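Narrative of activities, Objective 1.

The group set out to show that a structural description can be obtained from nothing but a protein's sequence at a throughput compatible with the screening campaign. Below is one input-output pair from the validation batch, recorded exactly as produced.
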Amino acid sequence: MSSLSLRLPESLHRRLRELAQRDDISINQFIATAVAEKAAALLTVEYLEARGQQANSKLVDRVLSRVPDVPPVVGDEIPAPMRQPNRGFQLSASRKRKSAGSKGLSRSQRLKP
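Output recorded for this entry:
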């Protein structure tokens, strides 16, 4: 185990002490857990980005072609302010033509309120 000297403002130290007491743990354990949680979150983002780089766009298109183009079940709708196109994933030209369908609109255009 290693040591780390940490300087904190008195007000933050006081709040940490209160929170640690509330959880019946030491301040050291509280900080170690907080750092572990933050590291896990950052590492998860890195992991997902690396996995995303390995994606096979043809396979993604094939899987998405099986998804029925129907309205979501009541309660599963995406709230209007959150509806933004995913610019990280672009459909292939054949998928774009297929998704336009007989209505002449892309799926993202049909989802807009």
